[in-house]
Amino acid sequence: MAVSPISVLPDELLMEILSRVDSSNHLDLRCVCNLWKSLIRDPQFMKNHILRSITGFSSLSYKIEGHFIAFKSHIVYNPPLVPNVEEDVDVDVDVDVDGADSGEGEGEGEGEGDDDDDDDEDDDEEDEEVLRWKALIKLSNLERKEEQLKKRKNMDKIDEKTMIIRMAKLDIFLVVVRYMKSFMLNYLKSLEDRDILNENLESLRVEMQTMEDRLMCLKIFIKFYLRAISISMFSLVQPLWNFRLGD
């Protein structure tokens, strides 16, 4: 029985092949090499793979934003207030985007009992918009932190801090994508003439789902890498611990 050429390729060539694989599903790497999990531990491979994935996310996000703007142009509504946020807001790497302020605009409409339901809906829309803006601001700060890390020495290999920052950025991308999805679904319920938006809506739905799936997949991919290098570091340190305990 002939031996598959893939099984005899050197690791360096395998890593180069894997770094050029264009797939939205990272598990497809198994089709290239049965030992793909061991190659994930290679920092250079991870660097190439993540940078290419983020570039793909940027391209896809521009398309989603275009469809989203076109979708909103068909909807007449009162735009929510945009919070005044200073540019120099600092955030920790452990990003928490669930704490959005929802207090703005609550004072409007007091004393008008007939409009209570409308006021509640406006508040919900404002909360979602505030959440989106805060997420984008935190994304900008994380990108600034990442640039600062790149300026340091010995950045040929990706360290854990850089990977954690990129995971936080993926979380924020998810917040923005889910905001768009929520906005779209909420207003779709109130539309009378849906035929106007059918084509645009389907394109937006498919691309947002693709974006969300890819983000979740890459996030799991990075978690596996961080867990793998942590186990590797523990296996290197454990013999030293055993030696000291033996003394």
UniProtKB/TrEMBL annotation:
Source organism superkingdom: Eukaryota
Region (Disordered): 96-125
InterPro entries, alphabetized: F-box-like_dom_sf (IPR036047), F-box_dom (IPR001810)
Record's signal peptide: none
F-box domain residues: 3-54
Gene3D superfamilies on file: 1.20.1280.50
Pfam families in the cross-refs: F-box (PF00646)
Protein name (Swiss-Prot/TrEMBL): F-box-like protein
